[in-house]
Amino acid sequence: MSAPTTTPPAPAPGARHSSPRKKRRLGDVLFGGATRVAAGTILVALAGVAIFLTVEGFPALSADASHLAGESTFVAYAWPLLFGTLLAALIALLIATPLAIGVALSISHYAPRRIAHFVGYVIDLLAAVPSVVYGLWGANVLGPAMVPVYRWLSEHLGFIPLFAGPASGGGRTMLTAGMVLAIMALPIITAICREIFAQTPRLHEEAALALGATRWEMIKMAVFPYSRSGIVSAVMLGLGRALGETMAVALVLSAFRIVSFDLVSGTAPSTIAANIALSFPEATGVGVNVLIATGLVLFLITFAVNFTARLIVARSEKGLVR
Predict the structure, then answer these.
(1) Residue among 266, 192, 270 nearest 227 (CA)
(2) Name one Pfam family in it (predicted).
């Protein structure tokens, strides 16, 4: 006869199953704490910058005309600078966005692997070039080289306000500044677009090709719809880079505090960052507070742009997880 089998007693109602707790490794604890400290430090630094700009820039709201370049209010003083900042950034995005998307598509879908890796490294190295070098190149090489083009635009398309002229003799125009900013924003937009294009599901691409689509039609039907939010976030991050650039614009532009859409004239609007860099050494008293207040305006715009970009990136990543 076989021995009777005994069954373990059933757990009492409401009793919880006890499971051994996993011990966290010391390295995980230290790394987790370090990341929290780093995140908190960034938030504290960001809050400190915002508080400093707000406190130091507040006296500019009641500054008189002698500290506001003859303007009666701070808004009248800051508006031309804000206009120049947005105009230069818009020109940079109009040039950089299609170029960056084209380069990213070439790297991810068209070029052979060796050439794609080489082009990708070259584009990434553009981000390591100092902004002063870009400014010197734009003022001494790109600007003079573009003078014949500016003259042609002024002579043949002068009826358009963008090319009304007279054309600059040295090439230090808003269009030159926009092209320099486009080259500086190109690595950021290209890198993000390249990664987003490479994450397109392979099955989607193969399905489009199996239905008889060409490679370009496959990109339009499979890659672009999947990457739309990523492209938008890349463009907005590039916009944040263009908005905050200082030395390159200061070296390229013969800037004035005016509102003008003329892109080929030597009389070009200044940007907030360039105005601060050029005016701060000679500013005293309330004049310093005025410059700090314009810095606060630039800080708020840049923060809003980057915050919006991060929201789009987070939404895109959440969609990829799903």
Answers:
(1) 192
(2) BPD_transp_1
Q: Write down how long the chain is.
A: 322
What is d(CA 322, CA 320) in angstroms, rounded to the nearest whole number? 5
Inside any domain, residue 6: no
For residue 3, is it within any domain?
no
CB count within 10 Å of CB 201 equals: 12
For the chain, give me the number of helices (H) and strands (E)? 12, 2
Model confidence, pTM: 0.79
Tens place of pLDDT per residue across the chain (322 aa): 445 555 555 555 555 554 445 567 877 888 888 898 998 998 899 888 889 888 888 888 887 777 777 777 888 888 888 888 888 889 999 999 999 999 998 888 888 888 888 888 888 888 888 888 888 898 889 888 988 988 888 888 888 888 887 888 888 888 888 899 999 888 889 988 888 888 888 888 888 888 888 888 888 888 888 888 788 888 888 888 888 777 788 888 876 778 888 888 878 888 888 888 888 878 778 888 888 888 898 888 888 887 877 777 676 666 555 5
7 belongs to a structural domain: no
Report residue 186 as tokens.
Answer: 């190109």
The answer to whether residue 45 sits within a structural domain is yes
Q: What is the DSSP string of 175-227?
A: HHHHHHHHHHHHHHHHHHHHHHHHTS-HHHHHHHHHTT--HHHHIIIIIHHHH
Range of the domain at 194: 30-321
Number of Cβ atoms within 10 Å of the Cβ of 54: 14
* Cβ–Cβ under 8 Å, residues 74 and 61: yes
Cβ atoms of 308 and 237 within 8 Å: the answer is: no
Q: How many domains does the chain have?
A: 1
CATH number at residue 277: 1.10.3720.10
